[in-house]
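Backbone-to-sequence.
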């Protein structure tokens, strides 16, 4: 009586739901291992030593006063020898200004070259070793149910593939 009541209740609920499901098993006809190609990238450092220029400026400033003063005096002397009267004063001042600029630039260039040295530094770059390997991902189990091909990937070979069938009405 209990079994009949359960079946009747299930049938009534199924009729109200407009669908019902059943489970079945499909016999596996083919089971083959599947692999995936994996590319591994292993990093490594490639290093070398390189000689690089280094400007030494320890204790020195960029205002090169000796070259500026010598250039100004020389320019003033040369300018004083040009012209006459009031033009002589302007030529002296102009020569001193131009001489100062030339003396500054000459001493700046000379100092920069005289204090340039080279140091050995280590340089490195990251490179990669690549290798491919086949990784097992599972078995491809194939069966057929009412003319349809059923496939399931699993970590072991299967004899049967469980299926759920939903019937709507």
């Amino acid at each position: 009586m209990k079994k009949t009541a359960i079946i009747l209740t299930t049938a009534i609920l199924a009729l109200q739901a407009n669908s019902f499901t059943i489970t079945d098993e499909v016999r596996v006809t083919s089971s083959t291992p599947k692999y995936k190609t994996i590319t591994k990238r292993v990093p490594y450092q490639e290093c070398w030593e390189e000689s690089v220029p280094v400007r030494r400026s320890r204790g020195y400033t960029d205002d090169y006063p000796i070259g500026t003063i010598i250039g100004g005096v020389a320019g003033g002397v040369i300018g004083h020898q040009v012209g006459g009267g009031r033009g002589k004063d302007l030529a002296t001042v102009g020569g001193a200004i131009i001489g100062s600029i030339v003396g500054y630039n000459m001493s700046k260039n000379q100092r920069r070259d005289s204090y340039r040295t080279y140091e050995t530094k280590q340089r490195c770059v990251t490179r990669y070793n690549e290798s491919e390997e086949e990784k097992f991902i599972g078995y491809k189990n194939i069966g057929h149910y009412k003319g349809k091909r059923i496939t399931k990937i699993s970590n072991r070979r299967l004899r049967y593939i469980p299926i759920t069938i939903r019937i709507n009405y």
